[in-house]
């Protein structure tokens, strides 16, 4: 392709196929529920003002507590990220406890990462006892 890649502003979206560039005038559809700003959250999500959410998708009814840090991740509806927890490059559907760290992993809907625990590179947390 040989073209130079430029940095995008927060409201621009890179769209294309692997190995193919968009041509001028080519139309691109944007989903109605897409958010303009990186920190925009859907209705029902509660992201504490002291939390940091960067380059991530936050679903409805998600809770991100104070001091938590979420980077390059997806928090699906109902996910909970506890106080001072860190989530990086991960998909979270369940609960990440206080001070826990999740990186390069997936936490399922019933998954719980205990307070202070570390989940890295896809290791599976123990299911919560009922």
3D architecture notes:
With 130 residues, this protein is mostly beta strands. The strands form three sheets. The protein has a five-stranded parallel beta sheet with strand order 1-4-7-10-13, with no helix packed on it. Strands 2-5-8-11-14 form a five-stranded parallel beta sheet, with no helix packed on it. A four-stranded parallel beta sheet has the order 3-6-9-12, with no helix packed on it. Helices cover 0% and strands 25% of the residues. It is globular and about 30 Å long. It has a domain of 75 residues: 3 Solenoid (UDP N-Acetylglucosamine Acyltransferase, domain 1), CATH 2.160.10.10.
> pLDDT under 50 segments (min length 5)?
7-18, 31-39
Query: What is the number of E strands?
Result: 14
Average pLDDT value? 77
Count up the helices.
0
Helix share bin: under 10%
**Element-by-element helix/strand order:** EEEEEEEEEEEEEE
State which percent range the strand residues make up: 25-35%
The CATH class of the domain at 46-120 turns out to be: Mainly Beta
Query: Main sheet?
Result: 5 strands, parallel
Shape: globular
SSE diagram, text form:
Blueprint: E1 46-47, E2 52-54, E3 57-58, E4 63-64, E5 69-71, E6 74-75, E7 80-81, E8 86-88, E9 91-92, E10 95-96, E11 101-103, E12 106-107, E13 112-113, E14 118-120
Parallel strand pairs: 1-4, 2-5, 3-6, 4-7, 5-8, 6-9, 7-10, 8-11, 9-12, 10-13, 11-14
